[in-house]
Amino acid sequence: MREPNEIDFWRGFALVTIFVNHVPGLYFERFTYRNASLSDAAELFVLLAGWALRKLVDSTPKEGAAAGLVFRLAGRALDVYVAQLVITEIAIAILAASSILLDAPFLLDWHNASAVFHDPVRAHIGTVVLTHQLGYFNILPLYVVLMLGAPLIPSIHRAAPSALLPASLAIYAATLVLGVNLPTWPIEGTWFFNPLAWQAVFVLGYLAAGTDGFGGFVRRHRTSLRWLALPVVALGALAALARYSPDPIDLPEPTLFFMFDKTFLSPARLLHALALAVLLGGAFATIRRFLPPLTDYLALLGRNSLQVFCAASLLSLIGQILRFASGGTFAIDAVIVSVGVSILGAVAWASDSRERLRRASPKGQPPSSPAASS
Questions:
Q1: Considering only 55-64, 114-123, 187-196, 271-280, which range has the smallest mean pLDDT?
Q2: Region for residue 203 given its phi and psi (left: phi exceeds 0; alpha: psi -120 to 50; beta: otherwise)
Q3: pTM given for the model
Q4: Element spanning 326, H or E
Q5: Helix (H) or strand (E) holding 184
Q6: Of 257, 260, 284, 235, whose CA–CA distance to 36 is shortest?
Q7: CB atoms < 10 A from the CB of 106, how many?
Q8: Other residues' Cβ atoms within 10 Å of the Cβ of residue 347
Q9: 3-class DSSP assignment, residue 183
Q10: Domains of the chain, residue spans
Q11: What does the alpha-carbon distance between residue 252 and residue 258 come to, in Å, rounded to a whole number?
Q12: pLDDT of residue 366
């Protein structure tokens, strides 16, 4: 398995943050950085996904690279798609079981789940085609779309390196001007994470990971960019701490350019996420020097991000239900966080162990199980 690194560390940090933030009202939620930031772990997660794509592209042999890359990314998209379906169905079962055990039928309406119980035929079709998404279970559909479109990014970058960023920003700007988004069905609405807007941070992550072009510029001017990032981070923190959000009525058109909208990743959120990345990028080595167990643990989570994210999503839902059933005491909150983070670590360890056994076994021969040897 690969050694702890900066990408996995920050990805693990984002996963734990998402887990805590997805339990509204949790005492420990107030200590996550979104309370002092215009952006949150979602921007960090997608930025790192773009960064990881560039590392994958750069490490892929040039012979047959295009076909191999397409297959790898399509396989990744399929893995994420299947994971989305599985955790969505488990979440629906958790809500249904909880409504019975707690005699609380209104739980069937939580997180956009009502259509599954009141209009199951169309809702299940929508779930399969990703047009029906539960609340707090809607970032993986974005990731599926990004992975399906990911082969275009290195293709454009290789053919016309200077065209990728302008093309991405043009799509982003047009999305904000026109307010376009993918529709949901059977419940009328739009995607919570608009892929047409969020592709911008994905592409920026991809470009920043390189040593040429945009990435090279960032590396050459890292010190100057950090000084520029400081006031951006500070102003964002002040706005977040003051709970300031612009009133759309007072804003000029197109209003999405001036709002702090998460669905469309408004420029203030995007700029603040980039400023945080510039400011904290490269801090992994220093953090590991002083807190090696923490950095190694978070890197373990980040190394197995899909499995850990799925577990975190379900644990967050269970945490929400436990808080509802218990009244949300500090003791319950402490149990939710401590047990939840421990389970995430166990999931990551099991995933690591499985991968280690797979690589250690003779090619084409899966490791024998206790059942097979008994």
A1: 55-64
A2: alpha
A3: 0.92
A4: helix 305-326
A5: strand 183-184
A6: 235
A7: 8
A8: 20
A9: strand
A10: 6-356
A11: 8
A12: 52
